[in-house]
Amino acid sequence: MKKKAVALVLAASMISAVLAGCAAAAPATTAEPAAEAPAEEEAVEEAEAEAPAEAAEATGKTVGIAMPTQSLERWNRDGSYLKEQFESRGYGTELVFSDNKIEQQVKDLENMIADEVDLLVIAAIDGESLSQVLADAKDAGIPVIAYDRLIMNTDAVSYYVSFDNYTVGTLQGQFVVDQLDLDNVDGPFNIEFTAGDPADNNAGFFFNGAYDVLSPYIEEGKLNVVSGQTQFDQVATAQWNTENAMKRFQNILASYYSDGTVLDVALCSNDSTALGVAQAIETDYAGDNAVLVTGQDGDEANLANIVDGKQTMTVYKAVANEAVATLDLGDALLNGETPDEGLIAASNWSFDCAYDTSSYDNGTGIIPSYLLVPTVVTVDNMVEELVTPGYYTQDDAGYLHPTN
Ligand code: GAL
Description:
Number of strands: 15
Helix content: 40-55%
Bound molecules: beta-D-galactopyranose
Structural class: alpha/beta
Number of helices: 15
Distance between the termini: 34 Å
Order of helices and strands: HHHEHEHEHEEHEHEHHEHEHEHHEEEHEE
Shape: globular
């Protein structure tokens, strides 16, 4: 019997036990019952929380949602948006975070397959490490959606949902071109790059997108990479870890900028790395100019740095919409359909999305992809882009806080 069903039975018995307990505790007078209601409601809510699947599992199907970690801010939002969306459509859910540990994610996926989930939605920690466990998913007839990060070298993945990752990079690169007015001024300006986790298939797209926009100016000598570190492997950050990014950047500042050399730009692929780089600049950079720092994700601490002028922009990706697209795709799959471009029109989404059948080859062939559109956020448009749509609130001091 499916573990989930067990949980349901448990929950149901708990509900009745709680209710019985409440009832048992109540004095005999009718007047009293009113007072007891809140306890009951509480008990129901508690039981609901215990077994959300009952209410949500009108479909009798369960979706396994595997997120990389809770230590990188956005995945907490992705996890809860996905859970919310699938449950709102009558699916049970199993949501796990694997602490950025590859072997832990494999184990978590094995557990979900053993639980006989009906669909897997996976943001892989290491896109190269899931072939075996997903072969088991395929054998069990469980469709797999690669969420945000492509999963490599397995034909068990049927679809990919993400943002246009290359465009995230080109937006960062073009922002630098525009801010420094590189088409009209000679410079030179000094720039250093910080990229993401080599195990994450997205990291190369982000870096290449930015580098492809900036390399003509590097070749012209308008942009100068003082450290000479222009290859992805030289600028990558294991696990997207803030500390790793900070330490590397402290070394770069000590080695190449301690003699008064000016640093103009720190091109960082995302916010968790930008946080470390901004920290290194604050403590270890001798210059007094404001360094242009890029990012991605709209993490709370980074939005505060943008308000305080320690970071200049972030590329925002509305993960609430990424979850909606994943729900409609998953729903179609679980109804035995083979979604294609038509899903976008049929779903009537309030956001733009492109159906792509050429950009993402996972080594076993092209994976049909639904790609959402990222946006540039600065101190000038953050209210319009983040607060007005309800993704964040703004406090009296002007700082933004995620609503999820
Ligand atoms: C990427 C993701 C980015 C960023 C990074 C670190 O795969 O697309 O939004 O969050 O992981 O978590």
